[in-house]
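Practice problem: Putative oxidoreductase YhhX
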Amino acid sequence: MKLGIVGAGMIVKDFLSISHLLKDIELEAICGTPRSEDTLNELKDKYGIKKVFCDYDELLNSDLDIIYIGVPNNLHFEFAKKALDADKNVIVEKPFTSTYKESLILSDLARKKKLFLFEAITNQYFPNYKKIKELLPTLGNIKIVQCNYSQYSSRYDSFKEGKVLPAFDPKFSGGALMDLNIYNIHYVVGLFGKPENVEYYPNIERGIDTSGVLILDYGKFKCVCVGAKDCKAPIANNIQGDKGCIYQDTPANVCKRFELLMNDGTSSEVNENNYEHRMVNEFIEFSDAVKNNDLERCYKMLDHSLIVSEVQTIARHKGGIIFPVDDFTETES
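Answer key — structure tokens:
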């Protein structure tokens, strides 16, 4: 599978560091802005990428099977749509898009053209996460779910000094919900589906959420998701049922070992992840789906991404966080 990469930032470098483990993926090309050309060429030489482009249209006109989009959040929709319009399969980094409406447009276009469209969201593909899903019935009736991903950002120091970087800029679709809490939303929605109601209580500075508490109401149980970039706390995911709980002390984006703690006093530790790096499993599954022309698997994950996109859009609007691309004709509940 011939892969074209868009971007030269941290997430792209992270992906390239594990690309040698992806036997079905050929690093055909990388594309960025003219000002990043030196970095692009360094990455080309380091990882054996065949071609460098500084023009996205030229990249799309080349012989590629799939495009991996690792650009700032606010550009995900524009770059993904352009790739789909050019009949290219697409992997787009999380968060899928800035708004639910954008997600629907991409989803409809991919299905119409019978193209693959994936959101690169790590936790859905970990063996540990799949094991948690398998063990849920042993917990009895779920009562409370808690996910806390609080990680103090060095960029917050700059933000307090008046320097606004993309991670804290509404123009770039930044903020704690889009950066950290989005992993919690994926984690919960992947296990329990679409919530009945969404509420978001953010700490807002200069129009962006530096941290916030997301409440997902599932009727018979409640879920609290905390995402913070302006403070830190022990990271934990807890799924509490009336027969026992699952406790995990790693972030939702890496989903490492977890404990199964039962009310009868028995406990066990589980760790079935087979790769140390968080990005390997997702890209293996992406390439396997494309290789086997498994659109059904792709579109099932796309349906999941749509629910997450709808949840984050509703949450932002209820919390008063508005992006330039927001369209208030979108349906909210």
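Discussion: The chain has two domains: 2-118, 119-333. Students who identified this feature from the tokens alone can consider the problem solved.
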